């Protein structure tokens, strides 16, 4: 018989460390159905039939955050056989608050007090026998980091699960509150098992709208609520929260010996400097510079160049030694295909489709690994919470989190790790908003397009490149303001009441594990979409009709390809943007493989097999084929529209929801189109004085845009999650 | 009537009452800011918002707009 044990506890209490210690490498990481909350499951070391479920870190079982709703639905709906409640011994009062709620679920509970060693160092003591008696469950001491006591805790949990002895609620609130709870318990009748009645009764009294969905008949408790609220002059939710803390204070006073004199801990000393009023911003800038410099400019750049130009390009030299040449994957595969006499189209498919697609996925991985080490370190040492603290004031105006700064900074190098870096943002709304807007920042691959347009049409004017960044930042700010007022985003509240955990040195194994989990999820979840789309586009570019015969084309016959046909069909769509030429449309489409491809595609279409990175060979031809305003509109469109397939894969991975993925891509393309259109139409009005339907449309769009920016809105208070689907889907 | 928003850095105050309703209030209370608890205002972020307080032995950051919901003395 298999036993299910859930790990529950506050964020930053050492839950992940304990989970890793209990399960080792025997883990399965996924997502809870329908939401982007991470779900981790593993088998207890040495017990094949014991499954450990790592619940999201939560402070309470309130209905207001996704993590809390997910955790409580699991606890109520799936009913694990036992719960290990991890409690941070150095922060016991707030940690016990969740414990009092877990005790009410009618599931066997064992409490594991973590960080006892730290506590002893500071001269404080917890009498665990007394604490256990006061709380009505067994209490054990552990140190998740050192691994002490965890085996005992796990074995006790297994024994407890098999005995099926559910936790008995020994805590009690004020008499009036208890009377009301008893009255509601009676009303619940037989639809709720006896041991869960207290939980349901309290939730009903708290007016918890999510619990109502889990009951067949909802008793009318308005009289009880009213009586309580009149007696305490507060709302029931607050009354019960208050009662819990009153109870906890009495328990803590009874069983914990606090150190009277407050000493400044090392963590306090670090924090004094790191978030100092004057030093915080310079320190933040230095930290960000190091992250950027290492993960984008130097190590990250070498890693990407090595992966893209070496392993998947022209080959590379082991340790840089000339004689140790290692051929690239494509050339090895090509050699093998030639040796077996493979048909042209098949080797084309394998080389330019599949191998190139795999290369597009794996090429980003080395750089990501570097970045993820930084992120894991910053997160687990406690600095990431300070980043949110320092930057909150600026970013919250645009519906973003202070932590959005990092994805955007990384996005200037490459959007793929940029999007993946959004994982550090806990708040669902802030994270989605960040994912949608990060790729607006011009990444490294968009620089050749900027250089091309600036060089060909603006004589290399100094302002073109800065204006591209300005457009990107403006797009982020405007999108933030507009989107936070839309229905898609308005539903979720974002209280910024955040714990600033104590600084500590993360363990190497935790950092590496977090790095690998994220990189692997990119390869697995983003890989398929990147690979598939690369293959499809390869087919469209390399096949077509020449003299009535369908077949594979040479590279310079791109204008006979299926893609060119499609380009001809879709070109009129871009006419209002000033670049209705099919060549431009085709170039924009090939930009989806990688943005720098836009320049190369132009080269082929203008009759050059090889061109420089900025395409200087055909500047003259390009300048003759369209006016400067149209070229700028083309540039802006390419900056803002859907990013490359790799970045789209990352977006899909991070959204973890197909509807949100299409919403993000659709929004980006729509915004790019509207901005491109307005630039061209208003631009031609100013430069050439042309006035037509397009100009009118542009002005209507601008007015609409301004309306969307400034329309009033009210932040909603309810969490928009379909609880039933989360609870039932498995 | 004084709220936590007006408390100067370095001062310790006692919470008297919480106004407002809904998720923000619940969250503030979940984090341990309840009637009668002592709150020490530790510092203000470099840009003037949010503030960092010590409550029940740990550090918490909250926005000034939310701090306004907390009546203190």
Note down, in words, how this protein is organized:
Chain B: InterPro entries: Fe-transptr_FeoA-like, FeoA, FeoA_core_dom, Transcriptional_repressor_C. Chain B: Keywords: Iron. The complex is a heterodimer of chains A (730) and B (73). Chain A is α/β, with parallel strands linked by helices and 730 residues long. Chain A has a domain at 3-171: P-loop containing nucleotide triphosphate hydrolases (Rossmann fold), CATH 3.40.50.300. Chain A is built from 34 helices and 14 strands. In chain A, strands 2-3-4-1-5-6-8 form a seven-stranded mixed sheet, with helices on both faces. Chain A has a two-stranded antiparallel ribbon with strand order 7-9. In chain A, helix 30 runs antiparallel to helix 32 (658-688). Chain A is elongated, with a radius of gyration of 30 Å. Chain A starts with a strand and ends with a helix. Chain B is an alpha+beta fold. Chain B has one domain: Roll (SH3 type barrels). Chain B contains two helices and six strands; from the N terminus they run E-E-H-E-E-E-H-E. Chain B has a six-stranded antiparallel sheet with strand order 1-6-2-3-4-5. In chain B, a hairpin with a 6-residue loop joins strand 3 and strand 4. The longest helix of chain B is centred in the middle third of the chain and has 9 residues, at 22-30. Chain B is globular and about 30 Å long. The termini of chain B are close together. The interface between A and B is large, with 43 and 34 residues. Strand 12 of chain A pairs antiparallel with strand 5 of chain B.
What would the keywords be for this entry?
heterodimer, A: 730 residues, alpha/beta, Rossmann fold, 34 helices, elongated, B: 73 residues, 6-stranded antiparallel beta sheet, 40% strand, globular
| Apparent shape of chain A | elongated
Structural class given helices, strands, pairing of chain B?
A: alpha+beta
Uncertain spans of chain A, ≥5 residues at pLDDT below 50? 723-730
Describe the sheet with the most strands of chain A: 7 strands, mixed
CATH fold type of chain B: SH3 type barrels
* Fraction of helical residues of chain A: 55-70%
CATH architecture of the domain at 3-171 in chain A: 3-Layer(aba) Sandwich
What is the overall silhouette of chain B?
A: globular
Distance between the termini of chain A: 20 Å
Portion in beta strands of chain A: 5-15%
**Fourth-level CATH superfamily of chain B:** Ferrous iron transport protein A (FeoA)
Alpha-carbon Rg of chain B, integer: 11 Å
Output the number of helix runs of chain A. 34
Strand order in the largest sheet of chain B = 1-6-2-3-4-5
Annotated CATH architecture of chain B: Roll
Q: Compute the CA-based radius of gyration of chain A.
A: 30 Å
